[in-house]
């Protein structure tokens, strides 16, 4: 999922969430153009860009961060990076954020969980019953995470909203991708094949 948001003095002027793993990051400029129109803001009024740094898919992260970097360069504005799991943890009550990492794993971070890739079974062993988890990884592995509190599938607590990324700008870092584990291509080239 790719989210975009325009803020002025912490007020959300317009926001979007684009679903689709392979297409979301590719549509970020179109989403931004639509949001500018909805908010009645000119592109030249943008004074900073905050981009999600992942973890996520290799290609999606590269597209999103390259787009943010190119746009920041062309506008002459700073570009900062905030982790996707950190944005999910801004959801009211979310204690552990989970992003579907594919290959039977989730990227996780939160109370008692260091940033990493975990199988649902391993994560379930680490967390106490009733722990509130959010993100698309929680939705995908709902059955394997029995005993944890998972909001309904359509809940906004599963969305890494851009407004949360922007709200964390004070602790933002460089807009560099956070992969957590090696890309599939690296393993294939090393002879390990995809798992």
Textual characterization of the structure:
Helix content is 30%, strand content 23%. It is built from 7 helices and 8 strands, in the order E-E-H-E-H-E-H-E-E-E-H-E-H-H-H. The protein has helices at residues 28-39, 58-75, 84-88, 120-126, 136-140, 162-167, 184-189, and strands spanning 2-8, 11-18, 49-52, 79-82, 96-102, 105-110, 113-118, 133-134. The longest helix is centred in the middle third of the chain and has 18 residues, at 58-75. The model has no long low-confidence stretch (mean pLDDT 91).
CATH topology of the largest domain: Nucleotidyltransferase, domain 5
Q: Going by CATH, what is the homologous superfamily of the largest domain?
A: ATPase, nucleotide binding domain
Please give the radius of gyration in angstroms: 17 Å
Total beta-strand segments:
8
Structural class: alpha/beta
Task: State the name of the first-level CATH class of the largest domain.
Answer: Alpha Beta
Strand order of the largest sheet: 7-6-5-8
- What's the structural domain tally? 2
Known CATH architecture of the largest domain = 2-Layer Sandwich
Give the overall shape, derived from the CA principal axes. globular
User: Helix count?
Assistant: 7
Estimate the strand proportion.
15-25%
The H-and-E topology, N to C, reads as: EEHEHEHEEEHEHHH
Helix content: 25-40%
Spans of at least 5 consecutive residues whose pLDDT stays below 50 are none
The biggest beta sheet reads: 4 strands, mixed
Average pLDDT works out at: 91
List the helices and strands and how they pair.
Layout: E1 2-8, E2 11-18, H1 28-39, E3 49-52, H2 58-75, E4 79-82, H3 84-88, E5 96-102, E6 105-110, E7 113-118, H4 120-126, E8 133-134, H5 136-140, H6 162-167, H7 184-189
Parallel strand pairs: 3-4, 5-8
Antiparallel strand pairs: 1-2, 5-6, 6-7
